[in-house]
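G., the chain you wanted modeled:
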Amino acid sequence: GLGQPTAATHPHLLEPGEVTKGLTAADYAARRARTAAALPPNAFLVVPSHPVRYMAHDIPYAFRQESNFCYLTGLMEPDCVLCLERTADGAAAVTLFLPERDAQYVLWNGSATTANAAAALLGGNARALPSLETELVERVVAGAQPIAVSGNNEAMDARLQRALGPTAKRTGRRLLQQVRRHKTPAEVAMYQRAADVSRAAFLEGMACTRPGLTEHHIFSCMQFVAQLRGAQRLAYPPVVATGANGLALHYVRNTQALRAGELLLVDCGAEYHHFTSDVTRTWPVDGRFRPAQRLVYDAVLGAQEAVIQALHDCRNRAVTSHSLEELAGAHLADALAALGVLPPGRGRSAVSRFFPHAIGHPMGYDIHEDNLDGRMEEGMIVTVEPGIYIPDAPDIPEEFRGIAVRIEDNLLLTEGAPLNLTAGIPKRAADVEAAVQAGQGGVLPDYVATYHAH
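Predicted structure as tokens:
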């Protein structure tokens, strides 16, 4: 059988016909067909799954399948290898190599996927992993060109290098990024579910916020709600940064106490059955923006709205990640000049002191997917995440020092207006304040506050 949930064993989780949540065998077959069609003539693609990784001795980290392997198979088995080829008639031919699991493995880890079950699911062949090298060498000797996905399973990479030889191309990841960048309706529905879970987590995080708690309390609340709503995990270590901590773009210590008068910048997203979300909101710890904070906040929101408006015209080849960054930079430069933080007339290079990162990135099974050629195309999901980070420096007006604001949403690009998957998470200043203030009597916020007090 399959060593993972099925509709028969987990009817509370999967609908009849689903291989994984929201996706059927036909969905996975279509993905393999699109990938096979993208292969050069006489080439075959080799994709290893992830290994089990250990945090200490025999204590494993929670397993997350390699994204490309999961995208093509839906299987959650570690240490496998998928071989995908295009047949003479253009169809996708699949061979899966699986490790042999003995009774001791099953005793400690539970059921594992068998070769017969895998072959039936994928509509292809399944082989024992020890035959991997022999079969791959046969393909190479016959003149086929191997293309590998590497970098996620070091032990398997070494085996593949020995079998495929020095001429093997390592361009499989780029090829699959191209295939994965355009989302199907079934995938969009799952990304929306991930965004909805993130919305619930953010609303609870806002409601839980109050002076005297810590960044860790807010992180814990949001993770709890996300997993309670069905997320397997958070999609990345979240940034929960109060005050000047928000100036560090990837601050993840999340240990500082929350103080009245400070802003809390939270970059957090749920991962729902491998579909990710990536959201940032910034809100006042005590539920009320101070005047300088509000000015900076509205400047960032204005820049985001300008970029989202530009994405209405994604069919225009002039709309690229670079043009969007220039647009955001110009908007933020004007706003910072109006605040007296930046001398007027300065360009994008000057504003990079306060806006040092990209305006966004494509996303999918991985939070940060490759931007390839920088183009914006229908069916892509991208983030739009302008920010302003003002250092505590003597050349900055005192009321603005140490303010950090970022606002990030997930946008599905369409032929018209982009669909904001995360629109339900408050971001207008008045709505953000209301969301924080509304939590003062909530059950979970009260529990967190009571727990902290004792």
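The chain has a mean pLDDT of 94.

Shout if anything looks off.
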